[in-house]
Design a protein that fits this description.
alpha/beta, Transcription Regulator spoIIAA, five-stranded mixed sheet, 3 helices, 5 strands, about 30% strand
């Protein structure tokens, strides 16, 4: 079991999903359980703060890809913030657009 924490905050028109620790299948399950997908994005832009994320596996990456597809389909903006280390290398390896990483 990997330690993680995830929080969702609203700063007036922009939601921030902060993921601390491991971003893996357990974290994705926790996010989907605590924050229904219709609350992520939609009318608001979404920032996923990865500055405290030390590890991301294919489950975390798949979740981000799904969010990106929803954003493109529904017309809202998804940005990733603070990716570093292993997380940044994984995003670069899969060709995540630099313009979506702040």
């Amino acid at each position: 079991m990997n330690a993680h924490a995830c929080t969702l905050s609203d700063t007036g028109g922009r939601l921030t999903l902060t993921i601390a620790g491991a971003f893996d299948a357990e974290t994705v399950f926790d996010i989907r359980t605590r924050f229904p997908m219709d609350t992520l994005g939609g009318e608001s832009d979404l920032v996923v703060d990865l500055s405290e994320t030390g590890f991301m596996d294919s489950s975390g990456l798949g979740f981000l890809v799904g969010l990106r597809r929803r954003a493109q389909r529904d017309g809202w903006t998804l940005r990733l913030h603070g990716a570093n280390g292993q997380v940044q290398r994984l995003l670069q390896r899969v060709g995540w657009p630099e313009s979506l990483i702040a």
